[in-house]
Write a structure and sequence with these properties.
The complex is a heterodimer of chains A (314) and B (278).
Chain A (H helix, E strand, L loop, with lengths): L1 H10 L3 H6 L2 H33 L18 H7 L2 H31 L7 H13 L2 H11 L6 H8 L14 H26 L3 H9 L4 H30 L2 H6 L11 H11 L3 H34 L1
Chain B lengths: L2 H33 L3 H7 L13 H7 L2 H32 L5 H10 L5 H15 L5 H25 L4 H8 L4 H12 L1 H17 L2 H6 L8 H10 L5 H21 L1 H14 L1
Classes of the chains: A mainly alpha (314), B mainly alpha (278).
């Protein structure tokens, strides 16, 4: 090992020496640097992923996670015939769409508001960043308390206005909205910060050119700033989408997938199948289908992004 | 656009911004407020809007009763392990991606990015089976290993973006002077990207600090609970007063907020640029 290392060192001691010692060492060098990370991911992501795919074709149960026999594609065919699965797919898409759309709108609006210098801007930006840094479990806990039906601050406040108690986390009509609001509180600052960075990169001359033309704020934004922001917006949309499909803590702790499965996303469904129903095989099958959903979204994103970039650069 | 129009536009944006600031800060304020209220107020006479600061001196005692230091200690252990392991793996990978052309570079980048779309909930099942075989359930090192797979790629993106910005000539002149690639990375590149390394460390540390899913699934020994799992458990059982739960949640949250504010700038440039290039 020590000898091998010294060869590497000698071989790259100077650019001339590098050539002499043989190109193979130089060619190996990047792999020496990157392989620990890739091997690590192979062990802790690829192997479990392969095992997960394999599990999805078995009837493995939690009590005996290394046992279980092959059942072919039964888990998949059962899922595709199961209303619960289709419901959780629908719930995932609804949740994702709501979070992506509203976080982009609110985050962009906030970024525009604090883009121009004003007194106290640094402090305002700092406060607006608080939710992004707040741990998911803490977000869930404070929102559970604020949503509390009899004593939470939301119902206490609307009681003053003469409204009755609302079961924010208990009523199937409001469960999804309540989970989306708590999620938006947490993730919108991320959109704001990224959009703010993108806004700051809009060249001043662009603004000035339109100001001379006498354009008002809104049309300046639409004509000049928005096209400049589009690549960033697409990127955030992708990240928000795949993060929403993945999101676990906030939903699990707020509603656990209820009321009446109205917030039972694929990821919550996986967890419940695995640790409540103890059906590891079924859970793995849902996971594989969920991953396919993320993959499809990502591929669509890259296709759309490439087309749009080509169009914009014309 | 006329002058009054512009002025009223300014007023509208001020009002909107104030609303956003209140919305962003209120839950944190309410956590603080709740931590200083008694259960009889919270569930009976109603929570007061202003915090009862005279109760502040009771908070340390309440927190000691739920063994907050043990919980935070376990979280800190996981977070530190994740940060160190991620740093070692990521700094080398980022250097390779930034400075070398090699076969399979695109695949390596996509592989790193793909962890961003992998639901942990999918991996939790096979990892549970694997860890059971290696005796890594109920072991904090198991959590370090599992979480690093998700935190390390983020560190790679941030570090690669930072290394991209350093002119290569500096390393080249060192190379001519006989400096090895490891020396170039350790003695030239790393000192130049310290702010971004700090940002990556903060993100990784608090990813480990906050993590709940793996900890909740793998750890059944109460002595090994990190704060995330402990807090979630308190909320479920009614034996712990709500004020104590909220005080603990606040103590759990404040370090994260403080550190994120310190390295905010690097976080944003790293996350966006890194994710774009994948």
């Amino acid at each position: 090992m020590a000898r091998q290392k010294s060869v590497v060192l000698a071989g790259t001691a100077s650019s001339e020496g590098l050539k002499k010692a043989g190109l193979s060492t130089a060619r190996l060098l990047p792999y020496l640097f990157i392989s620990p990370a890739l091997v690590y991911l192979a062990v802790f992501v690829l192997v479990p992923l392969a095992r997960g795919i394999q599990l999805s074709f078995t009837d493995t149960r939690l009590i005996n996670p290394t046992g279980g026999k092959s059942v072919g594609v039964d888990n998949y065919t059962n899922l595709l015939a199961d209303d619960r699965f289709w419901n959780s797919l629908f719930v995932t898409i609804t949740y994702t769409a709501a979070v992506v759309i509203f976080s982009l709108l609110l985050g962009t609006a906030t970024a525009v508001l604090i883009n121009k210098p004003f007194r106290g801007r640094t402090l305002a930006r700092a406060i607006l960043t608080f939710p992004y840094a707040t741990p998911n479990v803490a977000v869930a806990l404070i929102f559970i308390w604020m949503y509390n039906q009899s004593s939470g601050v939301f119902n206490q406040s609307i009681a003053v206005l003469g409204f009755g108690q609302v079961g924010w986390l208990e009523d199937p009509r409001y469960g999804m909205a309540s989970v989306v609001v708590a999620t938006l509180w947490k993730v919108t600052p991320f959109v704001m910060l990224v959009m703010l960075a993108a806004l700051q990169s809009v060249p001043d001359e662009l603004y000035e050119a339109t100001r001379v033309d006498g354009a008002d704020g809104v049309s300046t934004f639409r004509a000049i700033v928005l096209p400049h922001l589009m690549p960033t917006i697409r990127l955030i949309a992708l990240l928000m989408t795949i993060w929403s499909i993945r999101r676990f803590e906030i939903i699990y702790l707020l509603t656990g997938g209820g009321p009446v499965e109205s917030t039972n996303t694929l990821v919550i469904n996986i967890y419940q199948q695995a640790f409540n129903q103890q059906k590891l095989g079924v859970a793995a099958a849902i996971g594989v289908l969920g991953l396919l959903l993320s993959l499809v979204v990502t591929v669509v994103f890259f296709v759309v992004d490439r087309r749009a970039t080509r169009k914009e650069s014309q | 656009m006329n002058r009054t129009g512009r002025r009223s536009g300014k007023l509208v944006s001020r009002v909107l911004l104030s609303v956003f600031i209140v919305v962003a800060s209120f839950p944190i304020y309410w956590m603080f407020n709740t931590s200083l209220a008694s259960d009889s107020e919270l569930f009976g006479s109603g929570q007061k809007f202003l915090p009862q600061l005279q109760r502040l001196n009771e908070v340390p005692q309440n927190l000691a009763e739920v063994e907050i230091l043990k919980l935070l200690g376990n979280s800190a252990f996981i977070a530190t392990g994740v940060t160190v392991l991620s740093f070692i793996l990521a700094v080398m990978a980022a250097y390779a991606l930034s400075r070398f052309k090699f076969h399979g570079k695109g695949i390596a980048g996509f592989f790193l990015f793909s962890t961003q779309m992998m639901p942990e909930a999918l991996l939790v099942v096979p990892l549970f089976a694997l860890f059971a075989g290696f005796g890594l359930l109920n072991d904090l090192s198991g959590l370090v290993l599992a979480n690093t797979a998700f935190t390390m790629p983020v560190a790679v993106f941030i570090m690669k973006t930072a290394i991209d910005k350093i002119p290569y000539e500096i390393e080249e002149s060192a190379k001519v002077d006989g400096c090895s690639p490891y020396g170039q990375l350790g003695m030239i590149v790393i000192p130049l990207i310290l702010p971004s390394l700090a940002a990556a460390a903060v993100i990784n540390f608090f990813d480990g600090w906050n993590e709940f899913l793996f900890a909740n699934s793998f750890i059944t020994d109460q002595d090994l609970w990190p704060a995330s799992v402990g807090l979630a458990q308190f909320m479920g059982q009614y034996s712990t007063p709500l004020s104590t739960v909220m005080a603990a949640a606040l103590v759990f949250t404040l370090p994260a907020i403080a550190f994120f504010l310190l390295v905010q700038r690097q976080i944003i440039s790293g996350l966006t640029a890194g994710a774009v290039k994948g």
